[in-house]
Amino acid sequence: MQKPVGNYRWTVVALLFFATSINYLDRQVIGLLKPTLEEQFSWTETDYSHIVMAFSAAYAVGLLVFGRLIDRIGTKQGYAFSIIAWSGAAIAHAFATSTIGFGIARAALGLGEAGNFPAAVKTVAEWFPKKERALATGIFNSGANIGAVVAPVLVPWILGVYNWEMAFIVTGAIGFIWLFFWWFGYELPSRQPKLSAEELAYINSDDETEAPAASDQGPAVGWGRLLSLRQTWVFLLGKLLTDPIWWFFLFWLPSYFATTFDLDLKKPSLPLVVVYSMTTVGSIGGGYLSSWLIKKGWPVAKARKGAMLLFAVAVLPIMAARYATSIWPAVALISLAAAAHQAWSANIFTVASDMFPKRTLSSVIGLGSMAGSVGGILFPILIGYLLDSAKNSGNINSGYNIIFLICGLAYLVAWTVMHFISPTLRPVTEAELVARA
């Protein structure tokens, strides 16, 4: 009888899950405190969009930096450095006394938080064979949703009992607790004494069943060489066109519910909890679907693209949010779209790990995620303009209606672009990397 493989790799996913939860908890706080901070600092929608842009711009730069850094120094040290930087920056918000101060704190947070996804996706590639990577990615990526679920309950409670400053301090301090478990509990599979020989062989089983995309050892690969590859642009443009939608869900949904349906953000917000709880289902279910299709015999590329097309179609109904006359129909439509985004996200990260060797993966994730952040810089400019114009006209909902139309179409456009760039999602070969040295 075959000896059980073991499950230690799922302990690693649990660490990634909690790190991502903390990442999004810290990111979400300012959106929930937006009405309070608008009143105290006299922010306009444009002021707030500039603060979001400061985060987005710094996040974009940080993704490039951490993508290369993690490929050079490894996931353990790179992840630790990232969470120290972003947790410290989260706490620093409590000491901001002006709009500029918040912009600086958000920029520092963006720089630090940029290390999370390059490190986490690379860790999954190191610890899982391809047939399980989308599910593992979906599980850790669902931490983004848990952070967003916890925040609407925790932050209003802290605000009510203490003040807005304490909300930043408490949430920022949680990252240092995670750091202890990561530093003393994580190692690469080949160095982890708690890992069985059978599980290590299973983790490396791709090498036994198929030729790897390229060697996982070799000289560093520069950004210029990566940008010359079609496969890089598949991931880069997919992120550019869809990441800004998720950032809108994070930074503007609380304000949308407050202004459109009079939701009191000083109390725990059940509608936001429902939206972000459903995204957890989407993230894990989306990762499970393509992994299940592969186990059923589908080719890897067909499974990924088929699943992503389904998720792109599932976002379309959000365009009907303009017709919602009460909060719960709007919650249902936005929940479906946000869940579909997270299902899409679990698969697009895995597409990158399917096409690129582990030694270049963090750099590719950094480049693509940076493109998503550029979209996150540009989209808030449009959002701020649309909402301020709509507010001045006396009908702020007209601005949200245009935004929801953009959200609904973005994923089908992205899927189409990705398909035409590389219909088969062909893995990169070592010869292609060397030829572009």
From TrEMBL:
UniProt keyword annotations, A-Z: Membrane, Transmembrane, Transmembrane helix
Membrane topology label: Multi-pass membrane protein
Pfam families: MFS_1 (PF07690)
Record GO terms (molecular function): hexuronate transmembrane transporter activity
Family matches, as InterPro entries: MFS, MFS_dom, MFS_Na/Anion_cotransporter, MFS_trans_sf
Cited PROSITE patterns: MFS (PS50850)
CDD domains per the UniProt record, alphabetical: MFS_ExuT_GudP_like
Subcellular location: Membrane
Membrane-spanning segments: 51-70, 166-186, 233-253, 273-294, 306-324, 364-387, 399-421
Domain Major facilitator superfamily (MFS) profile: 12-426
Any one GO cellular component localisation term in the record: membrane
Record-given protein name: MFS transporter, ACS family, hexuronate transporter
Organism: Hymenobacter psychrophilus
